[in-house]
Fold each of these.
Amino acid sequence: MATPVQPRIASLVPSITELLMALGLGPWLVARTGFCIHPAEQVAAIPKVGGTKDVNLDKLRRLAPSHVIVNPDENRLETAAALRSFVPELIVCHPQGPEDNLALLAQMLQHFGHLPGVQARADALMQQLRSSLARCRQQSWPGERVLYLIWREPWMTVARDTYIARMLAEVGWQTWPALQGGDTGAARYPQVQGDEPWLAQIDRILLSSEPYRFDTSHMAMAQALSSQAQVQLVDGELLSWYGPRAGMGLDYLRELASQ
């Protein structure tokens, strides 16, 4: 189906909502989730249609979007199936590593590149990402074993084929456990029991600011998992959000790895 001249876009992915704003597509954004919080001033006026996992389909239908953007990690398969019954263009995005943001931007251009200023903004973001990747890759990193925690009770981490793990790999950080999670599903975010033998070889434990908001009160509990590891609080949005944060996240990682 041909892209309408004046699209009505709904984003059900927080990082994609931020990307659409960075591309200048705010005037065409008609719906977002309650977790789509950046940039705060710009998204405040855009109607919310529930959360990423519990989308209010009736409200979304009334907003009559021409395009809805979803992601397999953020949104449920049944939600995508329901959307196909009334949305002209369902856009599925699933970056698996920082370099995939280039394909993501190309995907946005495919649908919205005809709108004023979008191509130039996308080009700038692509160049920023390429530069940040180059800065990471021109350095020789010593290599460290990392436990990246996203939840507690139970402790949960990331499989090696997730976007987060591949971001960390750009500075030589190898996530543990040594598991592949597949394209979708719970296996992408395995639980840690606390008695795994490999914990004794962990160099760093990274406590993410999302989806669980770790703070200094959790550092001793995390330290107990691996007594010799360096425990750090990290910005989860910079390390897991796609789009305009990807380049910034890589630069942030370079700083962390240099400490």
Amino acid sequence: MKIIQAERGRLRIGVVAVALAAAALAVLASQTASARSVTPTAAVTKTGSAGGPRPSIVLAHGAWADSSSWDPVVTRLQRDGYTVYVPPNPLLGLSYDPAFLRDFLSTLSGPIILVGHSYGGAVITNAATGDPNVKGLVYVDAFAPAQGQTIGQLVTAHPGSCVLPQANVTVQPYPGAPAGAVAVYVKQSVFPTCMANGLPASEASVLAATQRPLASIALTQKSGVPA
């Protein structure tokens, strides 16, 4: 399984890392075919290899976002001929979200490149464990926790997180929440500079208004065996 870490501030840059992972898979497929046969294989293009199936791309969004945050990336990948899926990330914690994604992955056949942004990185780290169809993991400004680590530990490893000060978030109960868990929102006044920096002000304001909450237990639940 190939792992690519892309440290960029804007989600749109993620298409580069996704394409790199897909190209790497195509090269591996071509090399494997060459090793098993003396028959020459066709040249590998950026959209896949004639010697193996083109991977499906599955994108996992981060906290305080939804699937539409990947829209520009989806457009470019589809234009290059990839099948792309962006299932919703429930944002309910690492005991639930990876299982939700794992069930979705079980409905797909063939090779998969799995991509996570921000909190979505922790989700793919757990969801892909033991799945032979997942050939590569791509982390776009994403958490890649080791076994036993929590998102809270990673967030506090370095100072400066804009979501840690209590004054920057609001909380409220939600139906069916485990004991002590609450839904956490980033205040709209803080969201543009905290979660949407680099975007036009009008777009950042819309994202602030449409944000989905993160369950507080997502910060404290331990990550499992990493893929």
